[in-house]
Cupin domain-containing protein
Amino acid sequence: MAEKKGVALGEAINLVNLAGYADGAVVSRTVIDKPVGTVTAFSFDAGEGLSEHTAPYDAFVQVLDGEAEVNINGVAHTVAAGEIIIMPANIPHSLRAVQRFKMLLVMIRA
């Protein structure tokens, strides 16, 4: 099968294992990067996160492992493995790993 940025196209992959944990770090691995959108797997060590920012598109987050606090426009939401949250376009948001966690981030640029 063909390979794009280290991900085998047309092959089954385990999302949970796509981005491995690293002590004191955030790890990301691009799965799809197209003009219409991106799919990226992330892993966060406990206490790590992404500072408050905005994005011009809605961001779909699926938690694959662990637990995180996602802050959207000043409101904190706890999300855990198996749950999703959508961060709306142009609204400030941030996230922090309550414990080590992994997520899949999908952004559609439309």
